[in-house]
Specification:
With 78 residues, this protein is an alpha+beta fold. It has one domain. The chain contains three helices and six strands. It has helices at 2-6, 60-65, 72-77, and strands spanning 9-14, 17-24, 33-34, 41-42, 48-53, 68-70. A four-stranded antiparallel sheet has the order 1-2-5-6. The longest helix has 6 residues, at 60-65. It is globular.
């Protein structure tokens, strides 16, 4: 059930390196976030993407702590 609500994690390569990416379904989105791509708020209930470095230099714990929530469209065009 949690996989259906949260989505599965995958690694995606972008221009600036490798990223862990996980889709968040609308029912699982319970907080407000600001998308770093467009700087517009992601409201609770809106499906979106959570991304964090897969190739960071400071270690997995720091990469996970620096994760950001993105609008799905903003992530696609990043």
């Amino acid at each position: 059930m949690s996989r259906a609500l949260l989505g599965s994690r995958q690694v995606q390569d972008k221009r600036d390196g490798a990223w862990n990416v996980q889709a968040i379904a609308g029912p699982s989105a319970t907080k407000h976030y600001v998308c770093p791509g467009c700087r517009i708020e992601i409201e609770p209930g809106i499906a979106h993407i959570v991304a964090w470095r897969a190739d960071g230099l400071m270690g997995e714990a720091d990469d996970l702590a620096a994760r950001r929530h993105w609008h799905t469209h903003c992530w696609r065009i990043k």
